[in-house]
């Protein structure tokens, strides 16, 4: 349902703003549950979003978020470029360890040959590190398509 809502927002935005229809030039971003939501939207709608920024993404055992690494490894490769950010002091609670979950995502993306990058900082479950590196993240995300993948 959230994917339908995100996709249904695009026509209204396109009426008011000049927005490209090219997925490789569109991105979606979120932090924590918003990070996994951003990934989910791009995963389900790669025709609409080709770039993802997930800060402290909740790829843990909250509503099945921990299933993504396996889905990535087994599923058809999608035209996505993915930036993951987490910290050494990110959450480690009953639902899982956020740093380990993001590392698991990165390993699955690497296994499947995705264009991805994982950035692990010293901080916790906050927007501080992600905000500090956002300019570099955006440069990495929208670099020329022919440049080699870095992780």
Describe what you observe in this structure:
- With 151 residues, this protein is α/β, with parallel strands linked by helices.
- The protein has one domain (26-141): Alpha/Beta hydrolase fold, catalytic domain (Rossmann fold, 3-Layer(aba) Sandwich), CATH 3.40.50.
- It has helices spanning 2-16, 33-44, 68-74, 98-112, 128-132, 134-141; strands at 27-31, 51-55, 81-89, 92-93, 96-97, 115-124.
- It has a four-stranded parallel sheet with strand order 1-2-3-6. It has a two-stranded antiparallel sheet with strand order 4-5.
- Strand 2, helix 3 and strand 3 (81-89) form a beta-alpha-beta unit.
- Helix 1 packs across helix 2 (33-44) and helix 3 packs parallel to helix 4.
- The longest helix is centred in the first third of the chain and has 15 residues, at 2-16.
- It is globular and about 45 Å long.
Low-confidence residue ranges: none
| CATH homology superfamily name | Alpha/Beta hydrolase fold, catalytic domain
Annotated CATH architecture: 3-Layer(aba) Sandwich
At CATH level 3, the topology is Rossmann fold
Q: Which percent bin holds the helix content?
A: 40-55%
Overall number of strands:
6
Report the top-level CATH class: Alpha Beta
- Compute the average pLDDT: 92
What fraction of the residues are assigned to beta strands by DSSP?
A: 15-25%
> Element order, helices and strands?
HEHEHEEEHEHH
The span between the termini is 32 Å
Shape by Cα distribution: globular
How many domain modules?
1
Quaternary state reads: single chain
- Largest β sheet strand count, sense and barrel closure: 4 strands, parallel
User: What is the CA-atom radius of gyration, in angstroms?
Assistant: 15 Å
């Amino acid at each position: 349902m959230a994917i339908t809502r995100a996709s249904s927002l695009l026509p209204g935005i396109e009426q008011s703003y000049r927005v490209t229809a090219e997925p490789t030039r569109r991105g979606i971003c979120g932090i924590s549950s918003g990070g996994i939501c951003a990934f989910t939207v791009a995963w389900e709608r790669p025709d609409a979003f080709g770039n993802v920024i997930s800060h402290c993404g909740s790829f843990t055992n909250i509503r099945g978020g921990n299933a993504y690494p396996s889905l990535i490894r087994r599923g058809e490769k999608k035209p996505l470029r993915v930036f993951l950010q987490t910290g050494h002091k990110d959450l480690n609670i009953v639902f899982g360890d956020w740093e380990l979950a993001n590392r698991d995502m990165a390993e699955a993306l690497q296994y499947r040959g995705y264009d991805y990058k994982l950035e692990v900082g010293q901080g916790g479950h906050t927007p501080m590190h992600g905000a500090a590196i956002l300019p570099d993240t955006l440069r990495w995300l929208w670099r020329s398509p022919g440049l080699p993948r870095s992780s």
